[in-house]
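Suppose you are handed only two things: the residues of a chain and a line of SMILES describing S-adenosylmethionine. What would the bound structure be? This form records exactly that question and the answer produced for it, so the two can be stored side by side and reused later without any lookup.

QUESTION INPUTS
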Amino acid sequence: MNKQSDFDRFKNLTFEDFKKLAKDDSLSQYQKVGFPDAYRENKEHIIFEDIINKLNFQLEDKNGSGVLLDIGPGCSDLPKMIIDHCDKLNFKILLVDSKEMLDQLPTKKSITKFEGYFPNDVLDLVNQYQNKVDYIVGYSIFHYVFYNTCIFKFLDTALSLLKPGGKMLIGDIPNITKRKRFFSTQTGIEFHKNFTGTDTLPEVNHLQLEPTHIDDGVLMGIVQRYRNFGFEAYLLPQPSTLPFHNRREDLVIYKI
Ligand SMILES: C[S@@+](CC[C@H](N)C(=O)[O-])C[C@H]1O[C@@H](n2cnc3c(N)ncnc32)[C@H](O)[C@@H]1O
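ANSWER OUTPUT
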């Protein structure tokens, strides 16, 4: 299967689709979480380091008392790296995803699994952990939430779990405006030609509705909303070694 058709195969997945992928053992660990192998193989250690850096995780001294929540961990090596890192620091790990996905992850004392869709299905987690969580990770999940759930309900609820000084990373967010900017440049055009192996131009349409897509307006609105609520919020670039860095970005929100 070529890169483009593999990419199309994993476009527009729902929470229900991910359950089926998780149980399909003909798929690789990356395909189970909706990525063609080429996008994740030998890349997850870069993502892991980036997550740890953006959360300033290794600088904290919470040995034995910390809590990390991963919303939508999936089941590839990435959540396992996060779990190992937390175990080294004696952190408690909370995982929220479908039962099918969570079943693929290790079961151990440091981990508490909450089955279902955040936030609607996990009210016990939400009630139990108000103001108690040090770090929240939601990597490559926000575009699946956008348009299915009120994103402000998702973010407001997640942020209500952070302790003062706690940090949340919503990573790997596709931004259609960033994509259009990139593919309007000569660099973007060359990238497209290389990727498709054709001499065609990338399709870039301005001044039209973009249903289901996150854009600059959505992301900047989020930054402004939570700054106005007293948090610090920033949009950050991805390392250029990651395959989507030219059209995705990361959001960090810190509770002061
Ligand atoms: C693209 S995968 C990313 C997995 C992992 N974070 C990574 O980057 O490798 C998206 C994951 O989020 C889960 N998911 C999507 N929406 C969710 C929600 N609202 N609550 C919990 N899990 C969710 C899916 O089941 C799937 O496991």
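WHAT STANDS OUT: The pocket of S-adenosylmethionine is lined by residues 15, 18, 33-34, 71-74, 76, 78, 96-98, 101, 117-118, 139-141, 144-145 (CB under 6 Å). Residues 216-228 form the longest helix (13 residues).
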